[in-house]
Amino acid sequence: MKALHDLRVNGETVQVAFEPYKTLLEVLREDLNLTGTKHGCELGECGACTVLIDGEPVMSCLYLGVEAEGRDIETVEGLADRGEPSLLQHAFAETGGAQCGYCTPGFLMSATALLRRNPEPSRDEIKQALSGNLCRCTGYIKIFDAVELAARRGEGREH
Amino acid sequence: MALLAEHGTDAMLMAGGTDLLPNIKHRVATPEHVVSIRDLPELQGFEVSEHGATLGAGTRLSRLEHDPQIRRVYPALAESASLISVPQVRAVGTLGGNICLDTRCNYYNQSYEWRQAIGFCMKRDSPICRVAPGGDRCWAVASADTVPVLIALRADVEVVSGHQERVLPLEAIYQDDGLEPTTLTFGEIVQGIKIPPPHGYVTVYQKFRLRQSFDFPLVGIAVSIRSDISGIVAEARIVMTAVASYPERAEPAERLLVGAPLTEESILAAGNAVFRQAKPMDNTAGTIFHRKRMARILVERALRRIAQLPETMQRVS
After folding, report:
1. CB contact set of B254 (below 8 Å; sequence gap of 6+)
2. Distance from the CA of B56 to the CA of which of B5, B16, B127, B188 falls in 20 to 30 A?
3. Is residue B225 included in any domain, yes or no?
4. What is the pLDDT confidence band of residue A134, given thresholds at 50, 70 and 90?
5. Residues A24 and A73 grouped into a single domain
6. Region A88-106: what's the mean pLDDT?
7. Roughly how many angstroms between the first and final C-alpha of chain A, as a whole number?
């Protein structure tokens, strides 16, 4: 049975009705039309659905929507500021960190959380932080390059 | 607890949900009701010092991994937590969830359609175990990373049921049964663990898996050693994960080590004993023989690290 819930998504509180068995991923995509967050393996084995809950990267496919009530949810749609992509998003575009693009929103969310916590990460720290995101196109190097480029440009410092 | 009592065995408890939700999606767990205990205050205890630790079952794995006190006092516990799955899972997965982790098997952790195609398995929906079809038991594998370390650290577990509370060695809640890997009864909840002071013990965890993230252990070995002043081993605990349906103590190897100093010879002897004892079945990734050999190699590596001996490249078997 559907019930109304207040979810705080990208700084905005929205009222949305959904069934209690729905995962946060399903609520975001199907009930809130935020389809930037991708549906990958659905089992916590790929990281495509990564969102931030209270600032921490979490698999939204392994998190019930009802349990997200009262927490801060951030999705890839929240990264751009008034239509201007974040420094990290620009860096992904420049280095070729996105190829087919399906895993990219998950990578962006994990890397955004990393740079806020640690604005000057070493390559090992980047690898560690992104170890829960799979990419089948890039071979990862361009993704690591993108995160380093964004860090050099100051991503993470404005928060 | 009232909710659990109301819905009986139709209900399941969920803390982080990173084990239960995939099982629900695979229809190997089919609860009518899920009771979230994520934020239950009774499960959030967290006290750590040189005098020991009391950790609530709701402690998130990422906290075990990063907490400076845990890293200082129980570094092997922090390391084992850091080797579980990936950051996004450790951020919500809990200590209690890892302690109560369901056993795993190639024939069980699959979608409904996949399992239907092979006629299901003993752990769910069939009387036949696909690993050993002639047998009368389920061989699913205990796959927790923190549990062997906690047992090596001689941890106790606090189990509550209603107003009753019992404290017993963590090791005692496990049994050699893939179907029912713990002796906990319906309505009992793991509230937390108590770890004695680490004084005098050196503990190390070694994990083998195919990828360095995401994967459950194909073999995991925790070793804890207490030596006396002259360097003679006074106490040894070796606990294996992912080679049986329960966290298995390697007692023959432990006995070999006690009463003598840790040397390359005694380490190789312990490795041999572990190799002989470990009997993984063909139900995870990797071959049986590879996992058996890795059990030997991991215990040797752990012991060399404890003895501060160099890694050797020579291999005989």
Report:
1. B236, B237, B238
2. B5
3. yes
4. very high
5. yes
6. 97
7. 39
- pLDDT at residue number B315: 57
Q: With CB atoms and an 8 Å threshold, state whether B22 touches A23.
A: no
Q: Which of A58, A67, A128 is nearest residue B88 as measured by Cβ atoms? A: A58
**A-B Cβ pairs (cutoff 8 Å, strict):** 60
Q: What is the pLDDT of residue A120?
A: 97
**Residue B174 and residue B63 share a domain:** yes
Selected residue of B14, B63, B88 to mutate for chain A interface (largest A Cβ count, 10 A): B88
Contact B284, B291 (CB under 8 A): yes
Contact B88 A59 (CB under 8 A): yes
SS3 B188: coil
- The residue of chain A nearest to residue B216, with distances taken between CA atoms, is A45
Rounded to whole angstroms, how far apart are CA atoms A47 and A130?
Answer: 9
With a cut of 70, which residues of chain B have pLDDT below it? 313-317
Return the CATH number at B262.
Answer: 3.30.390.50
pTM: 0.96
B197–chain A nearest CA distance, Å: 30
Q: What is the per-residue pLDDT across B71-82, written as a single tens digit (0 to 9) for each? A: 999 999 999 999
Residue A102 DSSP label: S
* Closest residue on chain B to A45 (Cα): B214
* Subunit contact A129:B87, Cβ cutoff 8 A: yes
Q: What mean pLDDT comes out for the span A89-98?
A: 97
